[in-house]
Input
Amino acid sequence: MAHSKSKDIIKAFKFEKKPLPRIVVDENIPETFAIQCRHCDEPDCVFACISGALYKDPETGKVLHDESKCVGCFSCVMACTFGGIVIDFENRKVVKCDLCEELEYPMCVRMCPNEALVFEEGK
Output
């Protein structure tokens, strides 16, 4: 929902084309696990990115993606040991968690009904 046009959960679900999820939930019942970007200290995906589309923000420590620079080589997908980068086959690009850069707090953490997701500021 955080990456939808309306930013409204009902409108986004009923009327909009769904953006690709930035977090994938592995549902191996009875256990589930959120697969997402870990914003690593030394991110292999950034080192593997041939176009500079993935970069680590030195101020926040977030690993961010500049879609305009992405060439769709998917090197980052192969380099990420956590599976935190999702392929957008339609646009031949990738998407990943940006910790809801435009919001004060990540939407997934705020909306998790079981409070299973926790957000901790980096050092």
Observations:
- The chain has one domain: 21-111.
- Residues 9-15 form the longest helix (7 residues).
- The first strand starts at residue 24 and ends at 28.
